[in-house]
Amino acid sequence: MNRIRRLARTLLHGSRRLIIELVRRLGAGTLRFLQDRLLGAIGDLPSIGEKIYISRLGSSRAALQEQEMIDFLLEEGWTIIQAEKYSFREQIAIFAHARAVCGLHGAGLTNLIWCPRGCKVLELCASNFLNGCYEGLAVYNGLDHRYLILEADRHYRPSVNLKDFATAIHGLDIG
Description:
single chain, alpha/beta, Rossmann fold, five-stranded parallel beta sheet, globular
């Protein structure tokens, strides 16, 4: 147990791979331990929104139509974030208050650990890189996980059909 406590302290410094590895190897009990220890560490940080989109705008692996997706989501009342621009503590707070999360498959979705049970998740997956790690994390955490598989180029940049994307977002039924 001391080993797990040391690892949990390390997490406060932002090691996402360690979080995924802990949960994968040690299971749901580890997830609950991390939540118990670290959710209390956020104190009274305020929520920035209940519907969170994790953006990669400006990144080499952003969706080809990401700006159009963001424009649509803003009209729908979503908060757009680039997770890496927030401290680890702020990320915990953002996701602890989320009712819905959407984002491309990637490190930002590790924050699903902090989401409350029942939070709705739409994971956008490049068709040439499918990996179920965040779906597994969602199951461990009692989240309502869905995915949308998108055609992608050889650099794993997905191309989004905006009509299908809008349908998937509305299908989350979060108001």
